[in-house]
Design goal:
It comes from Rhizobium metallidurans. 42% of the residues lie in helices and 26% in strands. It has three domains: 15-125, PAS domain (Beta-Lactamase); 152-257, Beta-Lactamase, CATH 3.30.450; 270-430, Alpha-Beta Plaits, CATH 3.30.70.270. The protein has helices spanning 8-11, 15-20, 39-45, 49-52, 63-80, 121-152, 170-176, 186-190, 195-206, 255-269, 279-289, 309-316, 318-334, 360-373, 401-417, 428-433, and strands at 24-29, 34-37, 82-90, 97-105, 113-120, 154-160, 166-168, 215-222, 228-239, 245-253, 299-307, 339-344, 347-353, 376-377, 382-383, 386-394, 422-425.
């Protein structure tokens, strides 16, 4: 025990706690006569508490220990008010029992009363050995955790629900760019996060018992140095070793893995020339919107083919043609349609929502033709192209993706046959004529 030990009367309030204490406990008055003793002290001395009440405590020690207690410790206790781990021997029915004695004066007004704790020396040695073993095991575990954090890049955190205290491992400090060991709060941890992630975590802390299953989220994190990183957080409600409610979890920097996933997705879905969606993404999006198992939401499909593009390729070369395609892609995107795609060659497509009235497709088509017709700088001179646009409407002109695309193609060829640089809506007669 330390010199700042809790008073025995406060530490062992109930009778069961008093008698089940791992050491001998005694309360004595100013004359060091026993007022109270627990069963452990009775076991050391071979006497019951009733037999010991009123007896001077020094009589329970061997002769040498009694002399030391009476001549040295008691006068010192009247002055200092305490002694810490003095080695003495208690006289029992059999052999003397070596003990470590702690005595402290109660710090309150009233009659002078001392609390005495006696720890059997053999048990103390065993306790110290266990403590050393636990400390070594703790150090090993801490070393393993540090190595795992270093290798995996994963940091651990704990939020104590009752106290509101937040604990971070070294790796979490590194991820946040905060000095190791600095005091952190939940507000500080949430501040760099986006509003939706912040609200989600706050809702868990306010009602943690709802967090039965692990909560896993990815979010963008703005580092103090200005970098934007991608973090992954996981947490779950539980009770710690003291039975206190906590939310525990891990934090990981997944920026590289996230960027690889984005790159792979872009490689599979984005046209590298124009930055628009490619044919694969177009087919997937058109199938999703025109699928028979989903609620019907009307939209327009526009398919456009550039007029005069082949002449630019033949005259100025493919580099000039690529520059034209990139410019047309930017111009289509700038108009703010729902989704834009390059289907291949000089063919593009637009999926247009129908939220603003029946003439939306016509207005958009006219603006699109105007944008495309503007001169395009290819480095040596300006060139001009135009477009023929075919428009179909879902579900009016087709009940599935194949039908709606075929209708838009019919309309596009009708616009091209009518003189180019124009748009046309699908009509059933176009299909019949073809």
């Amino acid at each position: 025990m330390s010199g700042q030990q809790t008073l025995i009367s406060e530490a062992y309030n109930s009778e069961a706690d008093w008698n089940d204490a791992p050491c001998a406990l005694v309360v004595v008055d100013a004359n060091f006569c026993i007022l109270r003793a627990n069963a452990c002290f009775g076991g050391l001395t071979g006497a019951s508490e009733r037999e010991m009440i009123g007896e001077r405590i020094s009589r329970k020690f061997t002769t040498a220990s009694r002399l030391y207690l009476e001549s040295v410790l008691i006068p010192l206790l009247h002055i200092e008010g305490r002694c810490h781990e003095v080695a003495l021997s208690v006289q029992g029915n059999a052999e003397p029992s070596p003990v470590l004695v702690n005595i402290s004066l109660r710090n309150h007004l009233g009659p002078r009363v001392y609390d005495v704790a006696l720890f059997p020396a053999s048990a103390r040695r065993s306790f110290e050995e266990q403590l050393v073993g636990l400390r070594q095991d703790s150090e090993r575990r801490a070393s393993w955790l540090a190595q795992l954090e270093k290798l995996s890049g994963v940091g651990a955190w704990t939020y104590e629900v009752r106290t509101g205290r937040l604990l971070w491992s070294d790796r979490v400090y590194e991820l946040y760019g905060v000095p190791h060991g600095a005091q952190v709060t939940l507000e500080m941890a949430l501040e760099p996060l986006s509003a939706d992630v912040r609200q989600g975590i706050e809702s868990i802390t306010k009602d943690p018992e709802l967090c039965v299953e692990p909560i896993v989220q990815e979010f963008d994190f703005r580092h103090p140095l200005g970098q934007v990183r991608r973090f992954k957080i996981a947490g779950q409600y539980s009770l710690n070793h003291q039975g206190e409610p906590v939310i525990q979890g891990v934090l990981q920097d997944v920026t590289e893995a996230h960027n690889r996933q984005v790159d792979l997705w872009n490689a599979a879905h984005i046209d590298q020339m124009t930055g628009l969606g490619n044919r694969y993404l177009f087919n997937a999006e058109l199938g999703r919107r025109a699928g028979t198992t989903r609620t019907v939401e009307p939209f327009n499909l526009m398919v456009l083919d550039l007029d005069g593009f082949k002449a630019i390729n033949d005259t100025f070369g493919h580099h000039a043609g690529d520059a034209v395609l990139r410019t047309i892609g930017r111009r289509i995107s700038k108009l703010g349609s729902s989704m834009t795609f390059r289907l291949g060659g000089d063919e593009f497509a637009v999926i247009l929502e129908r939220h603003h009235g029946a003439d939306t497709a016509d207005n958009f088509a006219r603006r699109l033709l105007s944008e495309i017709c503007r001169p395009i700088d290819i480095g040596r001179q300006d060139v001009n192209v135009s477009a023929s646009i075919g428009i179909s409407a879902f579900p009016t002109d087709g009940k599935d993706s194949d039908a709606i695309l075929r209708a838009a193609d019919f309309a596009m060829y009708a616009a091209k046959n009518s003189g180019k640089n124009s748009y046309a809506h699908y009509r059933p007669q176009l299909g019949e004529r073809t």
